[in-house]
Every structure is written in C-alpha cells, then in structure tokens.
C-alpha cells in the first residue's frame, strides 16, 4: 500500500426510553440529566495553524459516557469548540455544525475554517462544533501504523484475496481496540447523537439549530428522529443516505454518481479551450492511465518514486471532483500521462496512526459472503460505469468485511414531530453524496423535510452558490422554509 493510499484512506469515507412514536424512541427533555457547563478557554494554535486564524475561538472538553447504553460505565473527554455570536444583540441561539467524513474535525472547523459560514450566521449564532468520538481529539481510534500500511488493495481479485482481507480486518480491529481503549466499541452515530444532545444540554439550550455536512447529515437525521422536540432548525447539506440498502445498491449508487461527475468533467473539457486536454479523447487517455497503473507504471503524485494502484488513482480523480477542480484534474491527468514508471518502495511507518474510517463499520452493514458475490457486484459496476469502474467507496465495503454486524445498521428514517421542516440541500452533480441519495432521504422525511436543489457540481452546495447560501441562511435565522421543488442555478466552477 502506498503512502498516498494511506493518506487517502484516512480521508475517505444507551438510549433512555421515552415516548415511542412510529417505532422510534423519543426522549423527553426531563429524562436526561444535564451535564455540567463546559469550562471554556482560548483555543491554542496547533501544527500549521496561524494564530490570527485561531484567535477568538474557544475550546472545552465535555465528559460523556463511553457507552450511552451504560452511562455509569466510565466516561471520556469529547472535544468541543465555539465562536460566540459577533452581534450579541441580534443573537438567535446556538448553531451546531456536524462534521463530515467520517474523520473530519469540527474543532478544526471552528478554529481555522469559519469561512464555511456566512457573516450573517457568524453575527447571529454561537457556532459550535466538536470532534466526534473516535476522531482527532475525542479519544481517537489509533492503530499500529505499520499494520495500517499493510491494508489489502480494495480491488479483490480472487477468493484468496477475499480471505486475506477478512483476516486483515479482524487483526486490525483487535490492534485498534488495544490501542484505543473501550471507546473503540462505541463509535457509531447513535452514540454520537447522544453526544450532540449532551452538548445541547451543557450549553443550557432547550433547542438547537443544526447544520450537518456529508457524513454529518447522517448524524442530523438520526438526531431529528430521536429528539424532534429539541430541534429548532435542521440543515442537511450533501445528504448521506442511511436507508435500508444492500451492498449492491450501495455500490451501484456510489459508482453512478462518480461516473456522472466524471462525465461532466469530460463534457467541460471537450468544450473549454482552458482545458489542458481540450481536443483529446479524455476517456481513452483515462483508460490508458488505469491500464498503466495496473502495471505499476504510474507514480504516486506526492511521492514519485512509489507506484499508485488503479483504485487509488481513481481516488485521486474522485477527490478533485469535490470542488470540482476541473482545470487541475486535466493538468493532473496530463502529468500522469507524461510520467515515468516509479522505481522505489514505500517506507514502513512506525508508531500509531489514526483510523478514521472505523466509524463507518459501526454505521453500515454491507456484507459479501465470498469473492464470487463481491465479484458479481464489481462486474456490474464496471459494466454500468466504464470510466469510474473502480468506485472509490469500495474501500468502505472491503474495510468492513468479516467484522461484526454494525450496531447502527442502515434503515430508513422515521421522522415525526419537527415543528419546522428540515431543509435538505444537494448538488445535482455530487461525486460523493449523489442526488439520488438526497431525494431518497427527502422522501424519508416526507412533509417533515424540503429539498433545495443546486443545479451545479461538486460535493457541498452552501459555499458554491450565493442562492443556496441565502436560502440556508434565511432558514436558519428566521425559519423561512424555501418552497418545495425550489432549485438554484449552476455556477461554473472557478477551478
């Protein structure tokens, strides 16, 4: 496994029972004791943080149960951060940001990433976020770096590879558990839902406003399902579907949305003279690059002496489609075409390293009995998606093979009792959380949710479209819900 693969892997991818409504436990406010108010202090710059960027942010640690099903069984420190409303006289309340990933740091978002939020939101809300349990500063999942570097390639080729992957996943799970401690077994999103409610209670808020992004929308949806009476407003941007889907359905949906985004890039490149590959057959070039990567002839873009596999070459393309950065992608493909075969091997890392994908295996059960079943899925994906046949989200499936069934296995949401409908937002051409996921989750919300469509490209919509930003801001500030079926026009990507 290359060093690029290791880096990309880390980027990818106790309920107190109250009144039961439509099969969902809705917890009354009085049922849970409020935790102590957090002790806030000025956040300190870390790593490459610029002090001027960090200034004004406040950090704290909230003690929460390791397992909310057994709240007396020990606690750990959940890292949280906030910036108080800049215009206290016009303050609306608390806005909790649910980070994506799994693996994104909400504390970093508050410290150095406030450009994510408009000036109006920063004026009107105390903006709060956190590092989810098992991530960054909140008892992170840590594993032997050398073992993480041995991860089998997700492109399993035979039954022996399949069996090797299962053995590796079980060995890695035991290793991570030994280095992480008991929190390792309680990192599913249902546990994080309780953490978010503990944050709400610690801040003394009866209700909170929530803005979840990507994987954070799974958290928001499940919070709304369990605590509808504690939700003032709920924004789900780039919607992650936790609905009842099989392994094949998951891979089909993910492959189709990446193929769509790659197709949009090719269409742009065919028409735009600004594209480095304008006038070329981009699809033929890409097919040749995949073939060369299969022969070990394509270098890792960050370490040119090390080869990159076809899967992780596809992952590089996938990530450039997030913004999207089409000009950069065209230039990158040209550099790959002109590159020479690498000659080195990756160094074996020492010490411990984070495993940020671990929570996915607690939220999704996507099994395959054997190689034959998995190979059937991969053949179908390849037939239907000729360019992006190595679906990047495959790593989420193969990383969980052989592990126990997820504590928080996928099922459709059952939303009842929201005073204000949730606002869902999604790009029409999103490479990671496809528009089909957004329409699926919107249907699960029913009349308790409204979908706002951005007609453009990329993962995320709030920072890509002034129209989307304004509609989300109006909703969060004044609870103005956009009309059903509303969409915002596409804006050509700057990159």
Automatic annotation (TrEMBL):
Its Gene Ontology molecular function terms? hydrolase activity
Q: Which residues form the Peptidase S33 tripeptidyl aminopeptidase-like C-terminal domain?
A: 397-488
Q: Where is the AB hydrolase-1 domain?
A: 94-289
SUPFAM superfamilies for the chain = alpha/beta-Hydrolases
Identify the InterPro entries for this entry. AB_hydrolase_1, AB_hydrolase_fold, Pept_S33_TAP-like_C, Serine_prot/Carboxylest_S33
Which Pfam families did the record assign? Abhydrolase_1, Abhydrolase_4
Keywords, alphabetical: Hydrolase, Signal
PANTHER family the record matches = 2-SUCCINYL-6-HYDROXY-2,4-CYCLOHEXADIENE-1-CARBOXYLATE SYNTHASE, TRIPEPTIDYL AMINOPEPTIDASE
Query: Family assignment?
Result: Belongs to the peptidase S33 family.
Instruction: Output this protein's name.
Output: Alpha/beta hydrolase
Organism for this UniProt entry = Kribbella sancticallisti
């Amino acid at each position: 496994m290359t060093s690029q693969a290791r880096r990309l892997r880390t980027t990818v991818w106790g309920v107190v029972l109250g009144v039961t409504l439509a099969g969902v436990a809705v917890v009354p406010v009085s049922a849970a004791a409020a935790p102590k108010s957090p002790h806030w202090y000025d956040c300190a710059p870390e790593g490459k943080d610029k002090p001027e960027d960090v200034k004004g942010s406040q950090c704290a640690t909230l003690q929460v149960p390791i397992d909310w099903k057994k709240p007396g069984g020990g606690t750990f420190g959940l890292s949280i951060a906030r910036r108080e409303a800049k215009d206290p006289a016009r303050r609306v309340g608390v806005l909790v940001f649910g980070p994506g990933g799994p693996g994104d740091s909400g504390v970093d978002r508050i410290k150095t990433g406030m450009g994510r939020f408009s000036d109006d939101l920063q004026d009107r809300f105390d903006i709060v976020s956190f590092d989810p349990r098992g991530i960054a500063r909140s008892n992170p999942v840590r594993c032997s770096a050398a073992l993480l570097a041995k991860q089998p390639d997700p492109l399993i080729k035979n039954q022996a590879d399949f069996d090797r992957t299962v053995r590796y996943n079980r060995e890695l799970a035991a290793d991570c558990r030994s280095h992480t401690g008991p929190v390792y077994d309680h990192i599913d999103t249902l546990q994080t839902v309780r953490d978010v409610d503990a944050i709400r209670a610690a801040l003394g808020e009866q209700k909170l406003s929530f803005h979840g992004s990507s994987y954070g929308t799974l958290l928001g949806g499940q919070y709304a399902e369990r605590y509808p009476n504690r939700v003032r407003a709920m924004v789900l941007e780039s919607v992650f579907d936790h609905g009842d889907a099989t392994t094949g359905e998951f891979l089909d949906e993910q492959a189709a949305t990446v193929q769509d985004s790659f197709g949009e890039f090719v269409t742009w490149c065919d028409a735009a003279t600004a594209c480095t590959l304008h006038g070329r057959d981009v699809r033929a070039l890409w097919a040749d690059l995949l073939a060369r990567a299969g022969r070990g002839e394509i270098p890792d873009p960050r370490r040119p002496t090390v080869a990159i596999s076809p899967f992780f070459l596809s992952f590089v393309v996938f990530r450039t489609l997030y913004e999207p950065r089409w000009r950069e992608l065209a230039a990158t493909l040209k550099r790959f075409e002109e590159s020479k075969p690498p000659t080195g091997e990756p160094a074996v890392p020492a010490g411990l390293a984070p495993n940020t994908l671990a929570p996915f295996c607690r939220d999704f059960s996507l099994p395959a009995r054997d190689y034959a079943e998995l190979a059937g899925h991969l053949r179908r994906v390849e037939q239907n998606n000729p360019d992006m046949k190595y679906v990047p989200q495959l790593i989420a499936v193969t990383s969980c093979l052989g592990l126990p069934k997820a504590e928080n296995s996928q099922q459709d949401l059952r939303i009842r009792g929201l005073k204000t409908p949730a606002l869902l937002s999604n790009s029409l051409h999103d490479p990671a959380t496809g528009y089909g996921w957004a329409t699926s989750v919107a249907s699960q919300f029913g009349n308790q949710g409204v979908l706002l469509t951005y007609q453009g490209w990329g993962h995320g919509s709030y920072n890509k479209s002034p129209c989307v930003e304004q509609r989300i801001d109006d909703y969060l500030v004044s609870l103005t819900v956009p009309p059903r079926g509303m969409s915002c026009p596409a804006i050509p990507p700057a990159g």
